[in-house]
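Researcher: Let's do a round of design. I'm pasting the structure tokens now; please hold your answer until I've finished.
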């Protein structure tokens, strides 16, 4: 199954003065819950039930959080390595810095090679943006002739 994408027009964050360009934005097909994901794993020939898999994944999340709060990196095999990064206001000197200046802790994932090469195995399918899809549905409800009145070029969304 291909990865759906739409197009957006936006500025380069590192050069806001540059002209806007068109970029792809991934469009997810669905949001899979933990229960659904556990059932999916169980249906791949696992000897464990959906409930057991869900319990293990739930415990893994709790333990991952615990280890990250202890300052550890956690390597989860072919998934990758989880770690934290810190955000803070800056200080002019090391002596002037205090832990109270830290205002955010971000979860990071350094993916394994299995995930860093996804583009090699992926295929892509162009779809209208969510905004264009919603407008088309709205137009279909009020249209007398049944047409949505949109062209392919109308699917580019600006920020």
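Researcher: That's everything. Go ahead.
Model: Designed sequence:
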């Amino acid at each position: 199954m291909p990865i759906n994408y739409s197009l957006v027009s936006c500025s380069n964050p590192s050069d806001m003065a540059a002209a806007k360009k068109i970029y792809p934005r991934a469009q997810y097909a669905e949001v899979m819950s933990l229960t659904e994901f556990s059932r999916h794993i169980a249906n791949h020939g696992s000897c464990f039930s959906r409930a057991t898999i869900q319990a293990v994944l739930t415990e893994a999340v709790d333990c991952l959080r615990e280890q990250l709060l202890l300052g550890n990196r956690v390597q989860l095999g072919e998934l990758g390595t989880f770690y934290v990064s810190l955000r803070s206001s800056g200080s002019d000197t090391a002596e002037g810095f205090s832990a109270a200046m830290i205002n955010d802790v971000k979860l990071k994932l350094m993916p394994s090679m299995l995930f860093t090469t996804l583009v090699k195995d992926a295929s892509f399918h162009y779809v209208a943006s969510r905004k264009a899809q919603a407008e088309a549905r709205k137009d279909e409800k009020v249209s007398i002739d049944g047409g949505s009145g949109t062209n392919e070029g109308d699917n580019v969304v600006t920020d």
